[in-house]
Design brief:
Low-confidence stretches: none
CATH architecture of the largest domain: 3-Layer(aba) Sandwich
Mean pLDDT: 93
Largest sheet: 6 strands, parallel
Strand order of the largest sheet: 8-7-6-9-10-11
CATH topology of the largest domain: Rossmann fold
Helix content: 40-55%
Number of helices: 28
Strand content: 5-15%
Radius of gyration: 25 Å
Number of domains: 3
Distance between the termini: 92 Å
CATH class of the largest domain: Alpha Beta
Shape: globular
Structural class: alpha/beta
């Protein structure tokens, strides 16, 4: 008996992740193996030892009051009892799943929209000249945004129309923009940027947001115990909040960042852990807000800091990024991508990361534990995102002394170069990348230097060279093989002549696989898409930025509608959306604002409504009858892509363009007639 008790005291040995099964990426496999050799635990190991809750993953576990959690498993096959599935208060599986789903929308919308609010506050400070460190870089974008927000850019004096002072326009634009988060009446101004048919549909359905914050707060109220108990009514509010995110907070964040830091245009860089350099100070910026990272770029490029790094024995400073800060830096400065969400611990395990500077969202708390095994300094910078570990340094970043804070952080990284205590092991793997395809630059790429238009894309969709367009976005998820879903979905799409627009961690996965260069079209694409990419000089996968920049995909879709020939609304043309490895609440909000914008959107890995079949049918089927877009789910990446292709083909048939047209050589007269 004593021996049995003694055996129970012995801890079960923890499993270690198989590097090849854990990640599709060879550089990541090498670092996972190194972590095992050094005895460093990573997320891949934790995923082996902690399995998800079967009921929670189905979306039917309610913990919204102190009487729960109430767990409602699906009835076993062939057993009656669906009506008996109720929480203590009587909430059904449909009610619980809908509440949980829209709470995820609220969480995601809050994350993106609070990011946008922070940018708006910095923009206002810059417009009022309250900071010397931030200035307006893109006047044309400022004027365009001002017009969208109803700010006059001209003034009448003595019967003459004159241009208003740029500083006046900037201040008023900033004030109107910031007001979108909490104005007491009216509707969100940016919803009118959607196609007219889409706006009228939202108005008819009563889902046009009043302001950004109110829609998020109302979700929290409705999902409190004893409030909204009708899954259709709950989803109406979820839709309103998702629109407030995609066509509000996220879109404003993107536009205001472009004004402050410059609108992206194509740049070349490199991607993967191999961008780190052993003989240089490696400063990795991780998170989502470019307010801090823009200043770190500026400071690290000064001769003073380069000389300081050399005085410590380094040959310079190597900046690189992880997650969406990486995408922000790439698209505006050509700063290399170090990796995506699941690679953040692995970057430290190289032994070459002198400092990892983080702000908000997708920061694993465990990077502090991994850093203890190396010399890496982990530096938090945002007041709402701190860590409890004692080895984490907090440098509170403020736009009012931004350069001073950035200089302090860069110097800390440089000073730490001499403290490397582990053998440096940087994977050799990295790939070339072409990124920076905003709506403006893509229009010029398609139309030519002097002809900004999306008609080229429309024409090639109509004639069949391009089958359709897909937005493939989203996070990594440790419950599936890192990057495999992203890569296989995208390769299947472009093989079938579907042009891919990408953001976020999917963009980084595609970058590391070498899919973000024009040359990749010949290797991976069908003949039609390959010909278009070669003629225009673009990659078959266009990197449009960070996850907050999914709004660029919405606006690109709107421009396609405006260009003509493919219907009057986003829901009518051959387009589909995808998040193959989603994991965050932001992904649910993003997915839903695409769905209610008219886009068929497929998620991989798992879906948080499977425990409520009636509610899931509402999202997967009935929503298309209401919004023209609907949700879909498929864990297998190839089948996932094929669902999207089937939907694209359905839309081609509805438009009457399901048969490829003959190619016609056009002379100058034909082209002039087309332009007219």
């Amino acid at each position: 008996m004593a021996e049995v008790k003694e055996e129970k005291k012995v801890k079960k040995a923890k499993k270690l992740a198989d590097p090849v099964a854990a990640s599709y990426d060879v550089a990541s496999q090498e670092m996972i193996l190194r972590a095992h050799d050094l005895g460093v635990e990573t997320i891949f190991d934790r995923a082996e030892n902690m399995k998800p809750c079967n009921i929670g993953v189905q979306g039917t576990c309610c913990k919204n009051c102190g009487m729960g959690p109430c767990r409602l498993p699906l009835p076993k096959a062939g057993i009656e009892g669906e009506d008996e599935r109720k929480g203590l208060c009587g909430a059904t599986a449909n009610t619980i799943a809908a509440r949980n789903f829209i709470r995820m929308i609220a969480g995601g919308a809050a994350a993106h929209s609070d990011h946008g609010r922070g940018v708006a506050e910095v923009f206002l400070a810059a417009a009022r000249k309250e900071t010397d460190d931030y200035h307006i870089k893109d006047i044309d974008k400022l004027l365009a945004v001002a017009a969208d927000l109803g700010v006059d850019t001209t003034v009448e004096e003595d019967g003459e129309i004159l241009d208003r002072d740029i500083d006046e326009i900037a201040v008023e634009t900033a004030e109107v923009a910031l007001n979108e988060w909490g104005k007491p009446e009216g509707e969100l101004l940016y919803v009118k940027k959607a196609p007219a048919a889409r706006y009228e549909l939202w108005k008819k359905l009563g889902v046009i947001p009043r302001n950004i914050d109110r829609e998020i707060v109302e979700i929290m109220h409705r999902t409190h115990i004893g409030v909204d108990q009708n899954y259709k009514n709950l989803m109406k509010q979820g839709s309103r909040a998702a629109i407030a995110d995609g066509w509000g907070g996220s879109m404003l964040a993107t536009d205001l960042q472009d004004i402050l830091f410059g609108t992206p245009y194509p740049v070349a860089a490199e991607a993967n852990l191999g961008v780190m350099k052993e003989d240089m100070v490696n400063l990795i910026i991780h998170g989502h807000e470019p307010i801090l990272s823009e200043m770190i770029v500026s400071v690290s490029e000064t001769q003073e800091m380069i000389d300081y790094a050399k005085s410590k024995g380094a040959n310079g400073i190597q900046l690189s990024g992880i997650c969406c800060t990486a995408n922000e830096l790439l698209q505006r400065h050509g700063i290399p991508l170090c990796g995506n969400f699941l690679q953040q611990e692995l970057a430290i395990i190289t032994g070459a990361c002198d400092a990892m500077v983080v702000d908000i969202q997708c920061i694993m708390q465990n990077i502090a534990n991994v850093a203890k095994c190396f010399h890496t300094k982990v530096i938090t910078t945002h007041p709402i995102a701190r860590m409890e570990q004692d080895n984490v340094i907090h440098v509170e970043f403020s736009e009012h002394h931004a350069r001073e804070d950035a200089e302090k952080i860069v110097r800390m990284a440089i000073d730490n170069f001499e403290n490397r205590k582990a053998e440096v092991m940087i994977p050799k793997h990295k790939s070339l990348v072409v990124a920076g395809f905003g709506v403006e630059s893509t229009a010029y790429e398609l139309g030519g230097t002097f002809r900004k238009t999306f008609f080229t894309l429309n024409s090639n969709i109509i004639n069949g060279r391009v089958r359709g367009v897909a937005g493939v976005v989203g996070c990594n998820n440790a419950r599936c093989r890192h990057n495999e879903g992203h890569i296989q979905v995208v390769k299947e799409l472009i093989k079938n002549d579907v042009l891919v627009l990408t953001t976020g961690c999917n963009a980084i996965a595609c970058a590391t696989e070498g899919l973000l260069t024009p040359e990749s079209a010949k290797v991976y694409c069908g003949d039609g898409l390959a010909e278009v990419c070669e003629t225009v000089g673009i990659p078959p996968v266009l990197h449009l930025g960070s996850c907050v920049d999914n709004s660029r995909i919405l606006l690109a879709a709107t421009e396609v509608v405006k260009a003509g020939g493919l219907g009057n609304d986003i829901s009518e043309w051959p387009v589909a959306g995808s998040a193959p490895e989603w994991m965050s609440e932001k992904a649910i909000s993003i997915g839903h604002y695409f769905v209610v914008s008219g886009v068929y959107t497929v998620f991989g890995v798992t879906f948080p409504t499977s425990g409520a079949p009636e509610f899931q049918k509402y999202l997967f089927e009935d929503f298309e009858k209401i919004y023209g877009g609907m949700w879909g789910f498929e864990a297998d990446p190839v089948k996932h892509a094929q669902l999207m292709i089937a939907h694209i083909d359905k839309k081609r048939k509805e438009l009457g363009i399901d048969k490829a047209r003959e190619r016609v050589l056009m002379d100058m007269a034909d082209r002039q007639a087309l332009e007219a």
